[in-house]
């Protein structure tokens, strides 16, 4: 490998890290250095890789790979062993120095570190753990650290990663076991799930110990997450939603991330020639949001998909697709309906529903009251009953979808 300076390595390894979508800092504990001790904090800022917390805070992270060299040859990976890409590798000390230097320049407030596999899974995991250990112990860094762990590594090393990192993640890679076997034959789906189960147990044990002893070490306070590639195999949206729901239930994940497959140079013949529509990735995130915050069961999301193809519609969001498919559940009375039914009304978010529940305790709501709580009252009207509104004509229309689906518009390149 040619000798590269730090700037050249950073250019290569920051670009290689862009394929990893699971970059989020939500859910961690608050740490700061206002007491004059330590360095950094987990509070908001501006920087290189932007992730967003549930309350809307923008978190800036240095997002890089330790190396883009790899002993594995996964068909879909740009950094696979047979890929003809320029290689680079950081030492653990270089990553630590970069993180500290970037933080002091107010570029970042945390680190997201992943890596290809070099030499062996254990050796690579040791290097990543050393980065986190040095930041925490040698430099007293109190900012956010997210480590992408390696499921084949020794469980003791993964445990060490969780003691230093705010969040750990293990990629499930592909939605189906068949897809993983065909596109990443060197990876073991059973071992991946075993590693995720061990991390879940360690998180639970750490929380229980913290309740009994304040001095007990914290293990991955922001939990664990995973990522799956969309569009590299034949998995449908129905398969992906079902798989994501299973992962949430079995491993207590904080997030499942979806990454649309992107064609790579010198691609294998088993891969599709074109990437899936980015809107497909967006619809999967919306369905994920419905399950986590809108009390939708996975079966309800699956029911919104096309019966023959198993795919969610691209022109409308999953919530509207479900409402149109189950017209018999509507309209709902905004002055009487329970929260779970109000959450199923297209165009009403969690905040709007909370406002409706509060307001109707004092007076009966009219259509214009609801209009003030939503971006598009036209989208809401066919599905609700208010004090002065009943959608008699709209409720009976068989062709309701064209009236409420978003209009296709040509974007202007130089629009103000």
Give the topology string: H per helix, E per strand: HEEHEHEHEHHEHEHHHEHHHHEHH
Mean pLDDT: 86
CATH C-level category of the largest domain: Alpha Beta
User: How big is the Rg?
Assistant: 24 Å
Content-based structural category: alpha/beta
Q: Could you tell me how far the N terminus lies from the C terminus, measured between alpha carbons in angstroms? A: 47 Å
- What is the beta-strand fraction? 5-15%
| Low-pLDDT residue spans | 24-29, 42-47
Can you offer a commentary on this structure?
- The chain has helices spanning 6-16, 92-104, 121-138, 155-164, 177-183, 189-212, 237-251, 278-293, 298-304, 318-325, 339-342, 350-359, 367-371, 377-380, 392-396, 401-404; strands at 49-52, 58-65, 110-114, 144-148, 167-169, 224-230, 255-260, 332-333, 384-385.
- It starts with 5 loop residues before the first helix and ends in a 12-residue tail after the last helix.
- Helix 4 (155-164) crosses helix 6.
- The strands form 2 sheets. It has a 7-stranded mixed β-sheet with strand order 1-2-3-4-5-6-7. Strands 8-9 form a two-stranded parallel ribbon.
- It has 16 helices and 9 strands.
- The protein is 39% helix and 10% strand.
- With 416 residues, it is α/β, with parallel strands linked by helices.
- It has 2 domains: 6-276, Aldolase class I (TIM Barrel), CATH 3.20.20; 326-404, no CATH class.
Topology, pairings included?
Blueprint: H1 6-16, E1 49-52, E2 58-65, H2 92-104, E3 110-114, H3 121-138, E4 144-148, H4 155-164, E5 167-169, H5 177-183, H6 189-212, E6 224-230, H7 237-251, E7 255-260, H8 278-293, H9 298-304, H10 318-325, E8 332-333, H11 339-342, H12 350-359, H13 367-371, H14 377-380, E9 384-385, H15 392-396, H16 401-404
């Amino acid at each position: 490998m040619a000798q590269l300076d730090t700037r050249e390595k950073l250019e290569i390894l920051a670009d290689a890290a862009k394929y990893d979508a699971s970059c989020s800092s939500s859910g961690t504990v608050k740490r700061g250095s206002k007491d004059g001790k330590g360095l950094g904090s987990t509070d908001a800022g501006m920087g290189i890789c932007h992730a967003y917390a549930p309350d809307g805070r923008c978190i800036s992270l240095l997002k890089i790979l330790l190396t883009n060299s790899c002993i594995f040859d996964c068909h879909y990976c740009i950094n696979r062993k047979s890929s003809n890409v320029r290689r680079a590798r950081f030492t653990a000390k270089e990553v630590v120095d970069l993180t500290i230097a970037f933080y002091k320049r107010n570029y970042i407030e945390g680190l997201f570190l992943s890596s290809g596999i070099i030499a062996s899974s254990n050796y690579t995991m040791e290097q990543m753990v050393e980065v986190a250990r040095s930041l925490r112990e040698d430099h007293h860094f109190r900012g956010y650290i997210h480590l992408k762990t390696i499921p084949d590594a020794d469980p003791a090393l993964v445990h060490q990663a969780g003691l230093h990192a705010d969040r750990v993640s293990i990629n499930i890679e592909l939605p189906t076991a068949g897809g993983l076997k065909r596109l990443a034959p060197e990876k073991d789906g059973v071992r991946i799930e075993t590693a995720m189960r061990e991390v879940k147990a360690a998180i639970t044990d750490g929380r229980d110990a913290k309740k009994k002893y304040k001095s007990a070490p914290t293990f991955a306070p922001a939990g664990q997450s995973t990522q799956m590639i969309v569009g590299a195999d034949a998995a449908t949206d129905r398969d992906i939603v079902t798989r994501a729901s299973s992962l949430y239930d079995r491993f207590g994940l904080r997030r499942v991330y979806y990454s649309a497959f992107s064609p790579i140079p010198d691609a294998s013949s088993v891969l599709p020639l074109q990437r899936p529509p980015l809107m497909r990735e967006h619809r999967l995130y919306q369905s994920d949001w419905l399950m986590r915050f809108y009390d939708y069961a996975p079966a309800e999301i699956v029911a919104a998909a096309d019966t023959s193809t198993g795919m969610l519609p691209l022109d409308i969001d999953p919530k509207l697709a479900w409402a149109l498919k189950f017209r018999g559940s509507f309209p709902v009375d905004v002055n009487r309906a329970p929260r779970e039914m109000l959450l199923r009304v297209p165009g009403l978010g969690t905040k709007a529903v909370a406002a409706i529940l509060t307001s109707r305790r004092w007076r009966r709501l009219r259509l214009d009251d609801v209009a003030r709580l939503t971006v598009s009252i036209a989208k809401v009207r066919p599905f609700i009953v208010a004090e002065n509104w009943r959608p008699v004509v709209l409720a009976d229309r068989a062709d309701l979808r064209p009236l409420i689906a978003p209009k296709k518009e040509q974007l202007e390149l130089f629009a103000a």
